[in-house]
From TrEMBL:
Entry's Gene Ontology molecular function annotations: DNA-binding transcription factor activity
Top-rank lineage group of the source organism: Archaea
Xref: InterPro entries: ArsR-like_HTH, HTH_ArsR_DNA-bd_dom, WH-like_DNA-bd_sf, WH_DNA-bd_sf
Chain ranges of the HTH arsR-type domain: 20-60
Protein name (database record): Bacterial regulatory protein, arsR family
Amino acid sequence: MEGELIEVISIVQSSENIEKILNYLENRIKTPTKIAKALNLSQANVSRTLKKLMKYGLVECLNPDKKIGRLYIITDLGKQALQYAKT
């Protein structure tokens, strides 16, 4: 298993909220507001977590130039790390 994958698996398992957000995005494209409401988390927490996930390549913002209504999707690396975290 390569180093990058080990690092992101560790990140996914380090926080329950990270795992919740990745699970929620597994088959969806959503805004931070929708994620926060669905998972009963604060929008600030979701936004911080999404920034962290983007930094590690686990999620991608599809419209980063927008200030309102940014859409997020899980990446292939995010899906792979999530699968390892679930087992």
